[in-house]
Amino acid sequence: MRVRFRFSKVGKVRFTSHRDVARMWERAVRRTYLPIAYSEGFSPRPKMSFGLALPTGGESLAEFVDIDVVGDDYAVDDLPPRLSPLLPVGVEVSRAVVLTGPTVSLQADVMASSWVMQVGQISLPQAQDAVDAALASEILMVSRDRKGAESFDDVRPAIESLEVAGAATDGQGVMLRARTLLKPRGLRPGELTQAVFAGAPLRRLVRTHQWIERNGARVELLPLDATALAPTLEVVSA
After folding, report:
1. What backbone phi and psi angles, to 5 degrees, belong to 90?
2. How far apart are the first and last CA of the chain?
3. What is the pTM for the complete model shown?
4. Domain co-membership, 65 together with 156
5. Residue 238 has pLDDT above 80, yes or no
6. What Cα–Cα distance (Å) separates residue 164 from each residue in 64, 126, 192?
């Protein structure tokens, strides 16, 4: 049985790496005595598959992990409240569902991510002008390091939406909302701010949604209802 979990990662735990988060989950699952399946071979590993890595220092309301469990007689609705207390402060499991039929890996299935970003050292008029110019551009170049060599790529096709949400509540710059595509090649939030705002620092980053495509429509991966989502959205507005 494969179970997909949705969880958040907010606060000080945002500075932990993707690999550290995987270790946290391994320990928490063992402490619930949930019989996780293991790979075969000389060095068996727990069958856990995480989605796209969140940039270190970024927060998220929508992270996901698929876990293979031995057996099929578990009440998955009971798993989030059992797991959350066993994970570090700031990691909260909000939903669990059993996946049925053939499944696609999270990394292959997710098509886009939505973000809330705080960009510093820029005023509202400056930010709006920069966003308008970027969206009107047919080409938007960004530099990337490939094995020690600098290259330049056009990232404009990867910006699905971008808007200025208002001034930051702490007075340090502005808040933005963006949705970036992950295929054929992903666009990192830091690259987006580099391309649009010419060096203005990215002070805060929150991933709010991950999106997949079904029957030609973009749908949210494992959405929460309004009641469950309301407390987590306070993170974005803080």
Report:
1. 105, -15
2. 38
3. 0.90
4. no
5. no
6. 27, 10, 14
CB 11 within 8 A of CB 19: no
Please name the helix (run of DSSP H) or strand (run of DSSP E) that holds residue 211, with its range, or none.
strand 202-214
Query: What is the arithmetic mean of pLDDT over 113-129?
Result: 96
Residue-averaged pLDDT of the chain: 90
What does the DSSP 8-state code read for residue 147?
T
Contact assessment for residue 133 and residue 159, using Cβ atoms and an 8 Å cutoff: no
CA pair distance 199, 209, nearest whole angstrom: 26
Quote the CA–CA distance of 80 and 159 in Å, as a whole number: 33
Residue 230 lies in a domain: no
Residue 228 lies in a domain: no
Q: Residue 216 corresponds to which tokens in the numbers above?
A: 């030609």
Cα 60 from Cα 56, distance rounded (Å): 11
Say what the pLDDT of residue 44 is: 84
Q: The domain containing residue 193 runs over which residues?
A: 111-220
Q: For position 62, which CATH number holds?
A: 3.30.70.580
Domain count for the chain, please give it.
2
Task: Please give the helix or strand (H or E) that residue 193 lies within, else none.
Answer: helix 189-197
Res 237: pLDDT: 65
Assign residue 167 the CATH number of its domain. Answer: 3.30.70
